[in-house]
Each structure stands twice: as structure tokens, then as C-alpha cells.
Specification:
Chain lengths: 389, 389, 389, 389
Amino acid sequence: MTIEHKTGNGAGRVRLGMVGGGRDAFIGAVHRIASRIDDKYELVAGCFSSTPEKSRLSGADLGLAPDRVYGSFDEMAKREARLKNGIEAVAVVTPNHMHYLAARPFLQRGIHVICDKPLTSTLADARKLAALVEKSGALFILTHNYTGYPMIRQAREMVTSGELGNIRLIQVEYAQDWLTEATGQKQAGWRTDPARSGAGGSIGDIGTHAINLAGFVTGLSLEALSADLHTFVEGRQLDDNAHVLLRYSGGARGMLWSSQVAPGNENALRLRVYGSKGGLEWEQEEPNKLWYAPFGEPKQKLTRANTGVGEAANRVSRIPAGHPEGYLEGFANIYSEAAAAIRAVQAGKEIPPEVRFPTVRDGLDGMAFIDASVRSSSRNGAWVQVGHK
Amino acid sequence: MTIEHKTGNGAGRVRLGMVGGGRDAFIGAVHRIASRIDDKYELVAGCFSSTPEKSRLSGADLGLAPDRVYGSFDEMAKREARLKNGIEAVAVVTPNHMHYLAARPFLQRGIHVICDKPLTSTLADARKLAALVEKSGALFILTHNYTGYPMIRQAREMVTSGELGNIRLIQVEYAQDWLTEATGQKQAGWRTDPARSGAGGSIGDIGTHAINLAGFVTGLSLEALSADLHTFVEGRQLDDNAHVLLRYSGGARGMLWSSQVAPGNENALRLRVYGSKGGLEWEQEEPNKLWYAPFGEPKQKLTRANTGVGEAANRVSRIPAGHPEGYLEGFANIYSEAAAAIRAVQAGKEIPPEVRFPTVRDGLDGMAFIDASVRSSSRNGAWVQVGHK
Amino acid sequence: MTIEHKTGNGAGRVRLGMVGGGRDAFIGAVHRIASRIDDKYELVAGCFSSTPEKSRLSGADLGLAPDRVYGSFDEMAKREARLKNGIEAVAVVTPNHMHYLAARPFLQRGIHVICDKPLTSTLADARKLAALVEKSGALFILTHNYTGYPMIRQAREMVTSGELGNIRLIQVEYAQDWLTEATGQKQAGWRTDPARSGAGGSIGDIGTHAINLAGFVTGLSLEALSADLHTFVEGRQLDDNAHVLLRYSGGARGMLWSSQVAPGNENALRLRVYGSKGGLEWEQEEPNKLWYAPFGEPKQKLTRANTGVGEAANRVSRIPAGHPEGYLEGFANIYSEAAAAIRAVQAGKEIPPEVRFPTVRDGLDGMAFIDASVRSSSRNGAWVQVGHK
Amino acid sequence: MTIEHKTGNGAGRVRLGMVGGGRDAFIGAVHRIASRIDDKYELVAGCFSSTPEKSRLSGADLGLAPDRVYGSFDEMAKREARLKNGIEAVAVVTPNHMHYLAARPFLQRGIHVICDKPLTSTLADARKLAALVEKSGALFILTHNYTGYPMIRQAREMVTSGELGNIRLIQVEYAQDWLTEATGQKQAGWRTDPARSGAGGSIGDIGTHAINLAGFVTGLSLEALSADLHTFVEGRQLDDNAHVLLRYSGGARGMLWSSQVAPGNENALRLRVYGSKGGLEWEQEEPNKLWYAPFGEPKQKLTRANTGVGEAANRVSRIPAGHPEGYLEGFANIYSEAAAAIRAVQAGKEIPPEVRFPTVRDGLDGMAFIDASVRSSSRNGAWVQVGHK
């Protein structure tokens, strides 16, 4: 087990900026903590709100130099690109509809982007963003943070090495209950607003995490789906529940359930994968465990940093078995992978193959998934192909 | 809590016969144990196999008088109906395709039938059987035994009394792994043979249990479904996995997953029901617990025979909380309910409203569910109405 | 897996009588159900209460012939011993202080005794009873029912076969909460009364189960203990909580906790055994699971009737994995073992070595344990030897 | 729920130094991560090893200025105290026997000390250290990190507010398995060496965490104990297992088990507290849950940041329910509390009452606990008073 994840800072901390994430924002704070855990970043600039005064106050809260706090991301990109010690990467943590616009000026200047999910609010924006990334040569890291959990790395490694045989079944779900009733909560505001969130409600906000996780672990491509999206709470404009049947390349089939109206579910992302030789089961709320059932043998409880767990998981673990790592450490792993990639790129080297993070491609897949789900559901669950090419 | 379930035998034990269930049969032995637990039955006759010699040996194993052991069920029905102390009820525990034929001669003579599920192997047989039951005036009890679990009774009572508000979501699944590979096992023989099992594989054998349980707890009617049945093991003739989307009367939606190829799953029947005011979660493998999540309050662990559990559950409990009751006790509850109904009918009384058991109607619903699933799947998951009327 | 436990009744059902266990008694009903499950017994006589009228009513409830229902156990023993088809065995289910007196007349007539635990209310009575058993030649089965659970048999087999290496640690506990407050409940009446229960409160009622289970699984002898018994509820005469340190033959050490005042604990008997090569963990409330941790390998979840479980467990299992067996089935296993032993003895054969049940020796061990605990506690936890020889 | 714990850095980050914690050390890395999570500290100096070259390399790994990396802690204290921007606090993360010597020069210069546990290797050192702290006026924070978990704060709040009634029982245990066999591991080296670790093996290394946690949650003082310490692995000099009976002020009783030879246990710290009105159960490996059993009501699962959880827990939570926080976040809470206290003291203000952290007093209690355990065990478990005054 690696004690202190990736000790040593190579060329020093990555100078990081942030767009969005001002006072009261949830995910901005998560990104900041994640960036600090392994000491690979230093937050030095930000445009925390489109209201300059709010941005200024948030920057002060965070101890930033006043001249590195901006009222617009365009201005920020422009100035930071010219500074001698300007930011090397920017975290984009705005609502979805701003991701493309906020990322653009940085990408255009070759500044690496770490962006929250889903990629954008429309498939059209997603395509433009993907094209821009390709052109820019900058890295684009999408924070599908659940792929950072060590036991998810372990699951992927086991599938890849054939321990499960041919994958047949993928049962994935992501259930929450915070939208069971109409609510005036700030987070609920934009996440249920098509203008800011996009065409998907639960399917976009959490269904994309679920489908991404399934793809990450199994390495399979989703080929077609049949979706039944529904809104249970009156007056809500986007789905708050989604039932989706899945067909994967290679013949695997699956089910995806996303819901924000399932009382008693907090953040219940759960993945089960079954193959011809064995099964795996994992739940996000107890992330240090992975159940492994080799067919015909007793079920095993694999635990982070303990025996039976391989290098893919161990390299993103920090502390010994039984000392639970959580959501923030999983998120930090994405940040640390990003830092490793940034340093490699800056040094003109290949990104080491073990360094893994979701990219703009994963983001496009997610947007195509939302798009296909909405189309299928509007055609009463007809099977539709999923593809963005 | 009731200590010893339904003490007192009223008019004495019900004289029971059995068709099927000879040596090596699994479910026949289960029925016999279930009939004994509460001392409401005495097994006095049987036709345990279509091979007379085998039937004779099984009868001897069970200590029956030789003249009450038969080589054909027709002969058994004929003679038992004429005996002064002939059987009052018969348990039909043959493979599915024989249910109708085996039950018929008994029903025609007014002998009550307790029959294993699914009802028959074809919807046509099911309809004939239902008509015959109606005409006979005899009781027909279908052993969807999972409805006998106390905490399932509790769940039903909570839904009925409105504690969950309007039901929105039903997530039900029944996963096993015993057919992960091709197997020569006796049970697998008939259960994967369309001639004996019917058009449904996993969807018939276990999917019907799942859909019945969902209907029992919520009281809702399944209106339409979209199914994706699949056979993963080469050479198998029936589905070994089924993914089904559900639409219920009143607007609830759901998902059903049945599988016999999910390694690590033993008998994993799991029901989750979510309404506008709360959620319930139950797993068959830990049947004495029911999770109750009133929206906005901490989740509660309700346990059999403990505080917070009502009369509907308590009347089918035998022993104190923490002393686990299991599968056989749940099954016995169906038998004891049947005995209560038989005694009521014999006395010319109404069956008390709290006495609950699945009937031929439930059996028809199950056959209609299989039929609809097969039809939908053959049409690539088109939504089809579910109805047997 | 054995389907239907021990099919075949050999020389027919054992004719059983019962002393105690009238209306409202908890454990009498449990014994009756346990005797029926495997169809090895027929209840034909009883003295259900010391009040003849109550005894008569209970006998009628149970469908017994009126002339086989008695008002005194002496009369019952006398008459049954003379009947051609008199009882072959008697179940003694009275409060503890009557065990010796009730068992005596039957033992004196060579009638086998199945007796609830603890053995008696005093060590003196226990010794007399043991002497009487020896003299009588009859079998004496003590219903430490938890030793009947299949996964407990599995645990014993694993320890015996050396899979755990040298046993070092035994952590056993039995916690309940039903005596958290003073209560007028009938069960509480005699169980907290030294005259009827003996010198031990929780230590006698449940502590003896715990220590018996530890000994059954490990095969080790308890040599010495240091106890801290305490009564938390004012006015109660017996301990409602016990903390005991244990030293076993061979150098193993342990802890035992019994409590009836631990809110949230229903019937929480839990055994953990650790050796130089591995550990085992088991909880009574989920009895079909046994956790096995071979040192240096992933923890395994062994489940009843599934792979990885051996013959000692399988021979006392009835139904497939995932179909939970519970408390009553575990209890029934003791009854079925007793029946096998009775039939062997009657046939002049050795009791087969795989047939296991607690005897009067175990009962003496239990009484010695209570006695030692009370002595140690009265001497402020001084270490005392445990021995009844 | 507070999003981003304690946003705003007041007078900027606390300048932190570290003694110990060089390459390969486990706990040093933990302290560093914990100090970064909430952005309240900046590591600016260190003496990471008593070998100057090793210290230098570790400092370089961590990106420290070379002139702030020292080869002796005396030199470090001297120089840092004179620097204009010298450290304000130092983390002492050496083996136990060096805690006193390492902390001394900093305390003598008024530099606040954050020190790993147990306090020292001898009770004599502990007393000297306590006296020194008192004299210095500097803060001394002992990282009994488990008191930082939000649900432990919740438990304490519930006990304090009387929800459990009078506390009767404390069952606490801390089991590991990493010393099941003799091992050459670096951590095992000093932790099983009396010269560096002190007189307690498991009782010192993990037993002190357990007893501290019990005291923190219940607020009760341990008055007396009876201990049975044992060494199972041949050649080991310190106990690897401890069984302890506990008596608390106010009449509560308890049991403590610490073990490093219990296969299958990773870091299994578990606390159960029972009072006259209810019970609480918590396990470190799933720290976001707290089981609450109000007597006579269903058991509740309280979860971090969700309904039913109060301000004491919420103020040390960062992210929403269902997003697991872990060991590092709990540890970070101690660091953040320390920072709040440091800033208050520097400003001449009272430390706010809600700010909680273990102090040198807790450290003395822990040393007295080790001392009493060793004394009791050497007198064959005689009850001894626990007190350091």
C-alpha cells in the first residue's frame, strides 16, 4: 500500500483557477478539497460568480490575491494566460449550460480544463466542446469522480483480466430522495431547470454518472437503449425518475435506474456486473468494499488496501485497510490523475497508461446517452442507437 | 405476539393428499413441512409419482397407509372422494404442465386444491383451470409463499393505510445463479424445458413470484409492460434472464429483473416500493427485517414481532423478535391460512377478511404476465397490455 | 444438499409427552413445533400445568385424547409407563426449578427426556439429575438449541479440522433488551425470580446458551473465569447483565457478555472465534451466514447449503441456499438428532457419531458456569475454577 | 449542512511544522493530509527524521524550502521561534517514546503542539509533559482522531442531552489482525518494542483510542478496571490482546477488548452504549452511520448530514448525506478544531465551546489507563483504581 498518495510534487504544485463555485455552491467546494488532498494543486485564481462582487467575496474567503479574482471568465482566461505564473489548469464548476462557454476561452489559450459533469446542457454544445478540445491540444478532464474509487479500479481490473468471464449483465442504479417533494432549495433550482441543466433531469444529473461507471468498469460500449423517463412531482419540468434497458457491444444486457424521488436513498449509486464466471457488486455508500462471487465458490469481501486487491486499486489508495477512504478521496484521485497527466504533457511525455481519468469523449458519451434516453422515452420506449459519431 | 401460531385445531387437522413430490423432489418436501409446522394438516394420501412403484416407495417413506398411496391422480381423486375419511384438500406439486390435469379431478369432486406456482404451463390451461375452480366451489390456493412472510404482510398494511402516500415506484428483482452454466441437475431439467415449464424460463419460475409480491404489497394492478427476455447459456430453450419495465394502474412505474445467471445470488428476491411520503425495502434472504423510510425522517429498521409492527404481521408470527423465522414458516403461513379458509367454507361461514392467500386469480395474473412478457420481448420490447380478461 | 431433512421415519414417529408448556407459555410451543417439523414425533400426552383444569384445556387445544392429559407429572409418568403405546420420550419445559422433579419420574421409568435449559435451578439438583440419568440408562437431551444451526455445525467442523489453527480468542455475547425496565410480563416473572430461575439471571437464562455455544464450536473446556454480575433495574433480584473473562484449556482466552438491558438488542447471540490461522464470526439473528477469515486472504461469506460448506452442516439443512432456515429449524435439528438417538438406543445400536446433541453433561457444565460466575462476582471478580467434578 | 467545512481562513493559514513523519511513515502522511483538507494549515518546516539526510529528502519530497528542513527538533524549535514567519504549531508524529522530548522545545517557546497518541511511553513522561503544557500556555492537541467523526459528535450530543437516560453499559472494542503472526514490518517494529512504545502493546496502541472514545461519547470517568493482557505470538514483548472490565463513575459498567491478533479484523473500533432509555451503536469502518435504539421504538439508522442529526455533527460535516466522509476527514476535523483554537488564543479570545479536541488531560487519562491495565493484569486481574492525579 502506498502511504500518502503520490508523494513528491515533481515540478511543484499545479497552479489552478476556478470558474464557478462561489459561496453556497456545493460542488465547487468539493473540487477545492479534492485538489488539496494530495497536495498537487494550489488554487491561485478564480471567477467564482458572474456577479463581480460575489466573486470578490468568495475569492477573499479563499485567501486569494485580489488581483487574481475576476468578474468574468473571459477576462480571467485572457489575463491568466499572459501572467508569468498564470494558472496551468482551470476547474469549471458552473451549472451545465455554462460549461462550454466557460471552458472555451481557457482551451483556446491552451490551459487545461477540469470540468464537472455532465459535459454540457446540449449535445450540440458537447460536440463543439469536443472539437475545441481536440484542436487546443489541452487536456480535458471530466470529473466522473466515482471512477476514482479504488475498489472501482479493482473491479475494472478484474473484468479486464477476465476473472468474470464474458460479461452478460450490468445492473446499475443511482437513487436519491432529495426531490421527493417540490423544494425551493438552491441546488434544486438549476438542476431541474432545462435551460440550465439540459434535457435530462435525473438521467442527466445522476444517470450519466451511473452509465459512465458501468462503462468504466466493464469496458463495454453501450449500443442501444429503451428508456422510460417520468416526472412524478407536479410542475417539475425534467424527469425525476428514469428506467432504462441497455444493450451493450458483445451481447451484454442491462438495466439502469436513476431516481431523485426514492425516499430513504441518499446517494445510492450501485453497480452489479455478472459474467459467465463470476459477479461483482459495489455500492458507493460503502465504497471500500467490493463483493466478488466467483461462480461455484464462496462470495468474497474484497476491501481496499487489503489482501486480494491489486495494483490498479492500490496506487490510488492512501491509508491502510479498515481506515475508510470516502467520496473526497475518490474525487481527489481524479485530480491527482489529472496532475500527473498535466505534468507528463508539459514534459512532452506520454501519459503513463495506469493514469486514468474521464475525458471529453466520456462526456460526449454521456450527452449521447441523455439524448438517446430522451428520444427513446418520447417514442414510448422504442429502442434507439446510442452514438455521437 | 402470538405464541404458537393459531393454537387450537378447530375441527381437527385437515386431511391432506399430495400429487407429485416423490423422492428427490424439492418443493414437495417443502409443502409437507409447511403443512406440519402449525399442526393444521395430516398427510394421509398421495400419488407421488406417475410411476406406481416410485409412488409406493415415497408413500412408505412418509409412513402412509399403503392403500392410500396411488399410482394415478385420477384414481386417487375417485377413491378419496368416496372414502368416509378421504382427503379434504390436495397439494399439487408436480411440474407446471401437469398442474391443470392433476388439479382437475379433485376440483370436480369438490376437494380443495393447494397448488404450486406458476398456475400452469399455458395461458389456455390457466383459463380452463380458473373456470373449473369457479364452477367447483372448492378453494384454490396458489403457493406464492413469499406473501406469507410477516414483514410482507406488514408492508402491505403500511401501503394500504397510506403511510407511503401515493405509490410511485416499484423496483422488484429476483436473482439466482444456479443456471449460470449448463447443468444436468434434475431441477434444471424440467424448469428449462418449455414442454414442462411453459413459455417462460426465469420469468415464469421466479419472475411470477416477483410480480405477485409487488402486486400483493402495493395492491396495484399491472397494466402494461415492456420486456427484454434473453437466454445467455447456449442451447437453453427458455430465457434465463428477464428485464421488464412496468406500468401500473394509478400511474406507478417499475422495473422487474429476474435472472438465474447472476453469480453470487442465491435466492435474492428483493422488493422496494417508494411513494410520495415514504419508502419500503425488503429482502427475502433476511425476511425478518423491513426498512421503512418516512420521507424527511431517519430510516427505521422494523423487525418481526417487535415494536412498530402491526396486527397483520403479528397474526402470522410465532416466536419473539430476534428469533428468526424463515422460508418454511412463511410457507406454513399460506398453509395455515388455507386451513382457516377450508374450515370456514366447510362451516358455511365467510372466510375472515384477515385470512389472506393467493388464489387462482393470482395464478391467472401470473400467466398473463408471462404471456405478455414473451409477447413484448418477441416484438423487441414493445409495450403490451397485461390482461387475462 | 439434503431435501427434506432425514426422510423416512424408521420405526415410525416417536411418541412424545410434554410437561409444562400450557397456554401462554413460550418455549412449550417452540418445542412442539420443533418436534413436528421433520415428522419424527407425535405428541400424544401431556401435563401442561400444575392446575389440572388448565392442563386439560391446553391438551384440548392441542387435540390430545382427554385420557392422555394429566394433572400431575408423577401420575403421567406412572400411567404412560404402563400403557402399551405410552410415550417414549417426554419434553420438560417447565421453569428451571421444576426440571429435576419433572424429569425424575420419567427417567426412573426409562423414558427419554428432552429438557429445556438451564439444566436446573441449583447445582445440587443438577448433580442429582446427572446421577439419575446415568443410573436410568435413558437419554437426556438438553435443548441448547443454538447448537442445531447448520452454520454452527460448520463452524465446529472447521475448528475441528484445524482450519483456524490454534484457537486463541473466544468473544461471545448474548444481548437482549426486554428487561430494560421493570415489567409485569409473565415470562419476566419467573425468569427474574431466584426461587424458580436459580442463582443466575441473565447469566443463567442466556449466558449458559452463550458459553455452551462457545464450547460446542471450539471443543475447548472452560477452566476459569472472572465475573462481574450486576443488576441495573431497581428491585430486581437477579443479575440483568454479566461481564465475564474466560480462560480455556489450551491457553485460549475470551470474554462473555450477557445482558437483558441493552436497548435495541433482540436476541443477539454472537460468537467470534479467532485462531492462529483464521477467524470465524456468526450471529444468531442471521444464522444462515458464517464469516470465515483465513489469515492473509479475503474474508468469505459462507452460507448454508452453498458451496464451501461441509457435510456436518448439510446433513442438518433442509432447503437450498438463499431460502432462510431459522430458529425453529435449528431447534428441530436437536429434536431430530434426539429421535435418531432414541431409535438407535431402542435398536440396541451405537448412536451414530455424526448425531450430536447437548446432554446432561452440558447441563452440568452450564450449572457449574452459573455457580462459578456467581461466586466470582461475589468475590469482586476473583478468578475461580469452573468444574463440577 | 455546511458545504466546505469552515470556509474562510480568518488570519490566513496556520504555519505548521512537523517532527517525524519522513518517508515510509504512515501517520505523518495522515497528519499532513488532515492538515490540508480544510485549508487551515500550510506546512512550512520539518524535522522528518533524526538522520539529517533522510530529513532533507523528505522535506524535498514535500516541497519545503531547504532552510526550513532540520536535522534535530531542538534546532528546529530554536530557529523557528526566532523567524518572523516561523511556525505557529508543530505536529509531533514520532514513535511514542520521543513525544515528550520532541514536544518540549516547542512548548518551551510557546509553539502550539499537535501530537499523536498515546501521549508518551511512560506515565512519568506524561506527567512531565502535562506540567510543561500547563506552564507554557501553549495549546496541546492530542490526535485521538476518532473523536472527530461527525457521528461520534452526534452520539456525544445525544448522551449529553439525555436521550439515552442513565448510562449503564459501555461495550467498546478495537480489533485488528495485522500482528496475527510475527512480522518484520516497519510499523510492527516500534509498536511492539517496549522501549519505543511503552508498557502497553495493543492496550496502548489501540486500547487507548477505544477508552478515549468511550469517555468522549459518554462523558463518564473511568474509575476502576480489571485487565487480562496477553501475548499470543511467541517472542513478542508486549500484549497483543487485552480483555478489560470497566467501572465508571455513576455506576456504568463496561468491557473493553483490544486485539491485534483477530484475523479478519482490519481496524474494527466499535462502540456500543446503553442507557435506561436507549442504545447507540457505531463502527469505525462505516463511520457515517449511527444506530439509535430508543427503548420501545424501532431502531433508527442515523446518517451523517441527514435528518435527525444535530448541530454538533453538522458543524464538522462537509458534504451531503450518502457521500461518505472517512478517516481522513475525521482526522481533519481535529486539525480544524485545533486551528480554530489557535486563532482564538492568538486573538486573546475564549475558545468557542463547540470547538472540541483531545488535550494533554486526555493523554494523561490514556497513560493512566495503560498503567492501570498493566498493573491489574500483573496482579491477575485485580481491580485497580484508574487515576493520574
